[in-house]
Amino acid sequence: MSAAELGFLRSGRLLGRLATSDVHGQPHVVPVGWRYDERLGTFEISGRDFAATRKYRNVVANPRAALVIDDVLPPWRPRCVHVQGPAQAVPADLATGAEALIRLTPAKVTSWGLDEEGA
């Protein structure tokens, strides 16, 4: 991750869109909450009753995923970080109280619109 990408990810409340596919390759894209774990260099996606969601089941069946985190500044300045890589469905841990989550490890990161000029 570049300094500009990390700065963008730290810039505020940004919505992500997670793309997964089922075992047959049927795509599924949904808005998600996320967090970047700088220590591990991974993205964590979770939510309420997460292990019961289609996106979680898709990652169990097919661990390839992509995440888009973006926004648009006025008047029209789109900014985006696009992450592709292997995803892991991590079950809830009753002993620690940790929620189920998807952990996405970036294999390829592309971005645009993060420069100050907005090119």
Q: Which sheet architecture does the biggest sheet show?
A: 8 strands, antiparallel
Number of domains: 1
Low-confidence stretches: none
CATH class: Mainly Beta
- Classification by helices and strands: mainly beta
Beta-strand residue fraction: over 45%
Compute the CA-based radius of gyration: 15 Å
Summed up, the helix count is 2
CATH architecture: Roll
Which fold name fills CATH's third level, the topology? Pnp Oxidase, Chain A
Span from first to last CA? 20 Å
Name the helicity range.
10-25%
Counted beta strands: 8
List SSEs in N-to-C order: HEEEEHEEEE
The CATH H-level superfamily is Electron Transport, Fmn-binding Protein, Chain A
What integer is the average pLDDT?
93
InterPro entries: MSMEG_5819/OxyR, Pyridox_Oxase_N, Split_barrel_FMN-bd
Protein name: Pyridoxamine 5'-phosphate oxidase family protein
Pfam family, one: PNPOx_N
SSE topology sketch:
Blueprint: H1 3-9, E1 16-21, E2 27-32, E3 34-37, E4 42-46, H2 54-61, E5 64-73, E6 77-90, E7 101-104, E8 108-112
Antiparallel strand pairs: 1-2, 1-5, 3-4, 4-7, 5-6, 6-7, 6-8
InterPro entries: MSMEG_5819/OxyR, Pyridox_Oxase_N, Split_barrel_FMN-bd
Pfam families: PNPOx_N
Protein name: Pyridoxamine 5'-phosphate oxidase family protein
